[in-house]
Design goal:
The chain has 208 residues and is α/β, with parallel strands linked by helices. The protein has a single domain (2-206), classed as Rossmann fold. 50% of the residues lie in helices and 14% in strands. The protein contains 10 helices and 7 strands. The strands form 2 sheets. Strands 2-3-1-4-7 form a 5-stranded parallel sheet, with helices on both faces. A two-stranded antiparallel ribbon has the order 5-6. α1 (13-24) crosses α10. The longest helix is centred in the last third of the chain and has 15 residues, at 160-174. The chain is globular, with a radius of gyration of 16 Å. The chain starts with a strand and ends with a helix. The chain binds BIS(adenosine)-5'-pentaphosphate (AP5) and magnesium ion. BIS(adenosine)-5'-pentaphosphate binds at residues 7, 9-15, 31-32, 35, 52-53, 56-59, 64, 85-86, 88, 92, 123, 126-127, 136-138, 141-142, 157, 166, 195-196, 199. Magnesium ion is lined by residues 13-14, 30, 32.
Amino acid sequence: MDLIFLGPPGAGKGTQAKAIIDKFGIPQISTGDIIRAAIRDGSELGKEFKSYTDKGALVPDELVVRMVQDRLAKDDCKPGFLLDGFPRTLAQAEALDELLKGMGRGLDHVLLLDVADEVLVDRITGRRSDPETGRVYHIKFNPPPADVADRCIQRSDDTEEVLKKRLDEYHAKTAPLIPYYEKAGLLRNIDGTGTPEEIRERIFKVFA
Ligand code: AP5
Ligand code: MG
């Protein structure tokens, strides 16, 4: 099952990914997570990434495409993959099409989590992540358990100011992927509001 998770920052891609990857036994490939790991390593490339993510700007296409190409070549992607946060530009989508064609495979579904901008501000500013497990929580909607609460951190790009720029980038550069995948017959529009359980049920209907 070759899947893409599309949606604005805070739509719930990371939150919903776990159930999907468990169902199909496929890896979640989050370009944001890979980029943040490189930043933590302190490499030169990581420093370059940080100059973009801190501003809420997209990292250049060539760098992200190469990263995804390397990741898709790994053995665990044989049964499929869930791309979370990639592609994010038309150039990335076209590069992915070429890449998959070269591998003799193609996308099954593009899952679009649809959430209005007003809802996203609360979700993003209240998000906390557990650096040890990678699990995502929310101070109001899904508080971390007491034993992990102290080690939870806030992402440096999760401020209202940076979110504004991330949303601008989404609407200008990523939203054009919606008609792109609609034309290809791959787009599955999912209402991303409600409880995480309600949203998971809507997603699973796509696979029924
Ligand atoms: P990335 O890490 O991909 O961030 P994003 O797309 O902005 O998405 P988020 O991770 O912020 O949101 P999410 O949809 O995963 O939401 P979550 O489930 O955590 O990218 C970060 C940066 O990296 C980019 O700005 C860019 O610089 C760079 N980058 C990455 N990929 C790139 C690419 N392909 N090209 C170029 N640059 C790239 O949920 C959010 C919060 O809401 C959580 O607190 C959660 O608990 C809560 N929540 C979830 N669901 C619900 C619900 N139903 N009700 C209430 N709260 C909920
Ligand atoms: Mg995420």
